[in-house]
Structures are given as C-alpha cells and as structure tokens.
Amino acid sequence: MEIQYLYGLLGGLIIGAAGALYLLVNGRIMGASGILGSVVDGSAAGDDRTEKLAFIGGLVGAPALVALVFGANPTNLSSNIAVIVAAGLLVGIGTRIANGCTSGHGVCGISRLSLRGIVATVFYLLAGGISMVLFRHILGVI
Amino acid sequence: MRSVVAALAGALFGLGLMLSGMTDTNRVQGWLDIFGAWDPTLAFVLGGAILPMAVAWRLTRATATPALGTAFPPPPEPKLGRNLVIGSTLFGAGWGLAGLCPGPAMASLAWGGWGGALFLLAMVAGMVATPPLRRRFSSLA
What we know:
The structure holds two protein chains of two kinds. Chain A is an all-alpha fold. Chain A has a domain of about 70 residues. Helix content of chain A is about 75%, strand content about 0%. The radius of gyration of chain A is 17 Å and the shape is globular. By secondary structure, chain B is mainly alpha-helical. Chain B has one domain. The radius of gyration of chain B is 18 Å and the shape is globular. Classes of the chains: A mainly alpha, B mainly alpha. Chain A: One of its GO terms (cellular component) is plasma membrane.
C-alpha cells in the first residue's frame, strides 16, 4: 500500500473529527461552501457570521502556519487563467445552487445516509469524471 | 466560545485536507481521471472522514442539544429537486477542471500562489452571483 493512502486515511479521520466537533458542540453541519457562501453573499449575520468567519480563519490560518514551519506540497494548479476562472465560477455557482460541496453533501451528508448528500455526490463525481475526459483527453487543455 | 470551537474545527479541517493530499490538484484530478493514471487516495480520505461523522450523527440521537447550541440540524430534506442535480453537475465540472473544491481552495491559500488566489476570487464571485441568478431563473420559469 502506498504511504499516500495512509496519509489520506489519517487526513480523512482528522476532517471527520473536525466535522464531529462542529456538529456535537456547535450543532452545525461543516460545509465549506455553505460557510463561505453565506458569509460573502451576506446571508449570515451577527453571531452566526462571526462564528463562520472564525471557522474560515482557522481553515486558512492553521495550514498557513504549518506551511510556514514545515513547508507544503505544491497545489499543482493549472496556470491557464481561463481554466482557473471558469473552474472557480463553476465551483462557486454550482455549490451554492446545490447547497453543498464535498464536505457538506459528501462527508456530512453520506455519513447520515442523506439521500440528497448521496445523489449530489454521485452527480459531482460523474461530472468531475466527464470533465476530465472532455478537458484532458479530448480537448487537451488540462 | 462558539467561535473558538468554530476556529478549532476550521483548523482541524484545514490540517486534515493538507495531510490527506486534497490540496494537491494532481491527486484530486488523478482520482477523477479514471482513464488516466487512476489515484484512489480520495476514497481513503472520504472513507476516513465519514467514520467519525457517522459516530457523531449517532451521538446526536443520544443527547438533546449540542454542547454549546440550542438544537442539532434538522433531519435531511427528503426532496431531491432540480437544483441539487444541476448545481452538483456544475460543481463537479469545475472540480474536475481545476482539481479544487471549496475547502482545499481556502486551506491552500497561503501557498497556492496567484493561481490559487484567482481561483478563490472567481469562486467567491460565483457564490455572490448565485442568489440574484437564482431569482432571475425562478422568475423566468
């Protein structure tokens, strides 16, 4: 077994522990797109907004600190500006229309056997796979 | 106090994403690219994350309220709806194209360079544009 699978499993357990903490203590579903989306579109207000901003602060800050001390593996993101902007827009619009992304629908939804979470995951995985076929193997842009 | 816990949860989430390799777009695209050099890492990440969450959901049934809150989230909405399918499809297309979803896009901001910042900016723009777009479409339908 590749060591990366073990890191994946360990990292996954930490992600799940984060979601469990947020659920059991704050009573909330840990969905990255919902947390960021409701802060930037103004639908989160008052204490709710403060709490979400704190979450985002931890999410950006903790990896930044670790990267500063120990370094980080590169993101290997495409350098094609059109690809980056189109992908960002699709992810932003898509997750807000669907009301969730990999963390909310995937991790938090599937773990309570939510039909919506499972269906969303099936569709974004399928679309992701088709996107790879189209943009990598047919068009060759990524 | 709730904000301290939220920051802690966010920090753990970010560190988990970093350790698991989900901030490396090659790994994510490797998982989605079943016709290329397929990389199964993401299955371990998702499986690993679902385990503690499944236990947590079970614990919500044993306790009346969250430690620092008034109520647990309501049970999942049974209705699927067109938005869930359309939105997830758009999201998946973008996820494949760049290899970033919202969590890792935020977690890798510090070392993602100008490209990572541009992706986050475009994603935020899409998020801000969605409520007015939705109103527009529902008024047409």
